[in-house]
Amino acid sequence: MISHLVASGYEGSTVEDVSYGYVYSFGGRIGYIVPLAVASLIVTSEYQSGQIARSIVILRGRGRAFAANVVAATLAGSVLGALFATLAHLVSGAMFALNSQDPRLATSRHLAMYSGILALGVLWSAIGAGLAWLVRNQTAVIGGVLAFAIFIEPTISAAGNADPSVMRIVKWLPGPLNWAVSWPAGVGQETTRRAIGLAPGTALVVLAMYAGLFLVLSWILMRDRLGFSRGSTIAQ
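RE: above sequence
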């Protein structure tokens, strides 16, 4: 619907680059919740059902069970995230075409954006798996991320837009990192470029560090729980 409104607003005129970037970036700026939710659901479901205890026995080790669970969750989240990103990309292009505008569906810039969004899906799946192992409750994981994304981070980002010194810190947070990958930093007004902050490649590296930190921390905190209580077949 938003893609249609943007495209139809340019009836009889040429669509600006910033509007193309805004529309095609939705798959990353908003769609990250899909791989995160899927990965966290897989992790929390296996833990809460006690399946992780059987995985430890079958795979002969807590480390192997933990790694297998994280890999499976990340893979599943990445695949569904890629499907969502592809659908969002195609629908956005269709909305431009239906409004007699050049969809620019396969330009180098928008294909680069699409590729970056696919990479985001992998990283957010890993983050979702790590957070789920730390929290062990999917509702808390998704609720916490949404609360941060909808209420807390926009407030911080707004303060950063008004004060460049604040933005030097804010640009390292997950939200602006998503923007940096999903929307080319060179497109848009100066305030938009300032809000994005980092180059797409750099933003992906930083987000990967977030994912690695969550996974390492989750393993450190959870390894004692990935054992068996005496006389029980349920993981602690």
